[in-house]
Amino acid sequence: MENESTIKERVRENYAREARRVVENRGKASCCGDAQTAACCDGAPPNYDAITSNLYNDSETASLPADAVAASLGCGNPTALAELKPGEVVLDLGSGGGIDVLLSARRVGPAGKAYGLDMTDEMLTLARENQRKAGVSNVEFLKGEIENIPLPDNSVDVIISNCVINLSAAKDSVFKEAYRVLKSGGRFAVSDIVTRGEMPAELKRRVELWAGCIAGALEEREYRVRLANAGFAQIDIEPTRVYTASDAKSFLAGGPEAEAIAKMVDGKFMSAFVRARKPM
């Protein structure tokens, strides 16, 4: 496995490329949608991903800028599960194009605030443009790393994240920082990729999969232990999607090893909603 800085740079490059893709495709007909029903551009197959597709309903996305939806690369919908309340301060770790920040801002209302934290300049530019298009004022996008959050102690009511913590090679730092910035009684409510049982070593050696949400995922028991070690209580992990070999083949890069890798991960990893609380 390559070192932490190399993994971080691979992740940054991947998300910068995704931000550029959204900008380059702006105004073009979309091939996104349900794998079975989407009408395709120029006869190409639908742009369907077993992890990132069909996470938000139409009522949530209808009032959002198209670029915010197009840049969504998460594995769940934490804003729908976090039970955000008016007036709360929310922080989204790895906010990307801003979809979860904008949805959170709507839920907490004008008396609340939603922060988005991202390390990728291209994504921050896209997110701020999406904020401007959405006309949302109770939002602030910050540049920084989730292992070193640029906010004061005890300043946030709720931390959300969408398939980003698994990309970090320093997860203990992420959990400690999350605990630090949360207020007493604050909530950790993230969507993430979690494994069931040991992840095959072959996947750990595929560094490019860190940027695809697989190789960096924690096993669910280890996830609980690490959150507890950071100080969190009331820890719960709720599966939202369990992935099959067929799902795996849809997002693996292809090539001769794709079939074998897909079989190895069949039923062994899942999208999950991870809840925890900072004690009072």
Short note summarizing the structure:
The protein is an alpha/beta fold and about 280 residues long. Helix content is about 35%, strand content about 20%.
Give the arrangement of secondary structure elements:
Blueprint lengths: L3 H21 L33 H4 L4 H5 L7 H4 L7 E5 L5 H10 L4 E6 L2 H14 L4 E5 L12 E6 L9 H11 E14 L5 H4 L13 E2 H11 L2 E10 L2 H7 L6 H8 L3 E9 L3
Parallel strand pairs: 1-2, 1-4, 2-3, 4-5, 5-6
Antiparallel strand pairs: 5-8, 7-8
N-to-C SSE series? Answer: HHHHEHEHEEHEHEHEHHE
Shape category: globular
Number of strands: 8
Radius of gyration: 18 Å
- SS content category: alpha/beta
Largest sheet: 8 strands, mixed
CATH-defined topology: Rossmann fold
The tally of helices reads 11
